[in-house]
Write a structure and sequence with these properties.
The protein folds into two domains: 5-212, Spore Coat Polysaccharide Biosynthesis Protein SpsA, Chain A; 234-308, no CATH class. Helix 8 (215-233) packs across helix 9 (239-250) and helix 10 (257-269) runs parallel beside helix 12. It has helices at 18-26, 46-56, 70-81, 100-110, 140-146, 162-168, 178-188, 215-233, 239-250, 257-269, 277-293, 298-305, 310-337; strands at 5-11, 33-39, 60-64, 86-89, 95-96, 114-125, 128-132, 159-161, 192-204, 341-345, 350-353. By secondary structure, the chain is α/β, with parallel strands linked by helices. Strand 1 (5-11), helix 1 and strand 2 form a beta-alpha-beta unit. It starts with a strand and ends with a strand.
Length: 354
């Protein structure tokens, strides 16, 4: 029987959450899938967990590595083994909600011009749930512009055309930013990427994640990726701009309104036919929103907003609030279906707890 969706997963010592992750795929409303799992030389009970699932369900196909290859190489191996029309990503510590594959397969079938898409999600850490990505734009122009300043695409929530993934694959020289590099490479090749505005995944946050343990390496890799993205589609950043970009824009550790305004004016001045200018303003506005949620004074954020057209600011604030309200409502509905109780939170980011 022809497989519509190949789900790929690489796991290394994932015994804590692996069974729950695989069960979330087995319990999908969409059933015409295969799960390709690469066991990257795990030393815990991962191998036994995988063997048990493979014995129970022939759609779970386990391929052990003889040596530890790390994530990008393991994912490329999984891609080479896929037989489906589409390839969906799944991490060994996340949970796909029951309708994930059904909704994503339908979206890709109805949007043949889209090469890759992701979805909205909820996060969970220490039993506390929160909405993720609420209020953001989902269109391809916005994603292409957002890639100039951040990574707007949730990696474990991705589904893509198999032929695209097999052609592009992951850069195996990278250790923790292989997803960002792939998205920018697809954007440079004019592949459309979108986000399905439905909450379809629970994304687990914990201290052992690669994103919380390799910050210095992330800085180096992100800067290399973004320099290539900027130089290909816009213009290279000079050394001074690079330093602020990586710490003040992408990672926001050293936020500075004055330097941000300088960066924003430069970015807008070099905008060309490769980007929709309103989408670039949207991306810059998103960084200011992050600043406002961080340590930057509200008065400074308002000062920076003066560089934008007042009509754009008013429309964007209204758009974001309305979109966030809808996104939060979807997360609330999912939380209620899962038996999670809303206990506290803000208007934009409600938090749920079992």
């Amino acid at each position: 029987m022809k497989v519509d969706v190949s789900v790929i997963m690489s796991v290394y010592n994932g015994e804590a959450y692996l069974a729950e992750a695989i069960e979330s795929i087995i319990n999908q409303t969409f059933q015409n899938w295969e799960l390709i799992v690469i066991n990257d030389c795990s030393t815990d009970s991962t191998a036994q967990i995988l063997a048990d699932f493979a014995q129970k369900d022939a759609r779970v196909k386990v391929h052990p590595n003889e040596v530890n290859l790390r994530l990008p190489t393991s994912l490329n191996k999984a891609i080479s083994l896929c037989s489906g029309k589409y390839i969906a990503r799944m991490d060994a510590d996340d949970i796909s909600l029951p309708g994930r594959l059904e909704n994503q397969y339908k979206f890709m079938e109805e949007n043949p011009d889209v090469s890759l898409s992701s979805c909205r999600f909820m996060t969970v850490k220490n039993g506390v749930y929160a909405s993720g990505g609420a209020g953001g734009r989902c269109d391809s122009d916005a994603i292409k512009a957002m890639l100039l300043v951040a990574n707007p695409i949730l990696h474990p929530g991705v589904i893509a055309k198999a032929e695209v993934m097999k052609e592009f694959c992951y850069d195996t020289t990278l250790t923790c930013t292989e997803d960002l590099e792939l998205w920018t490479r697809l954007a440079m090749a004019n592949h459309k990427m979108k986000i399905l505005p439905e909450c379809l995944l629970i994304y687990r946050l914990h201290d052992k994640q690669i994103t919380s343990t390799t910050l210095e390496r992330q800085h180096t890799e992100v800067l290399k990726i973004q320099q290539k993205y900027y130089s290909s589609l816009l213009q290279s950043m000079d050394e001074d701009m690079q330093k602020f970009y990586i710490s003040g824009v992408y990672f926001k550790e050293n936020a500075s309104i004055d330097r941000f305004v300088k960066y924003a004016k430069w970015l807008r001045s070099i905008a060309n036919e490769n980007f929709d200018k309103k989408s670039i303003d949207y991306a810059l506005f998103e960084i200011l929103a992050e600043y406002k949620r961080g340590t930057v004074a509200k008065s400074d954020v308002i000062k920076a907003m003066r560089m934008f057209n007042p009509c754009f600011v008013a429309k964007e604030i209204v758009r974001r609030k309305m979109t966030a309200k809808k996104d939060i409502a979807k997360c609330t509905k999912v939380a209620n279906q899962l038996g999670l109780k809303q206990t506290s939170g803000t208007k934009e980011f409600p938090i749920f707890e079992k």
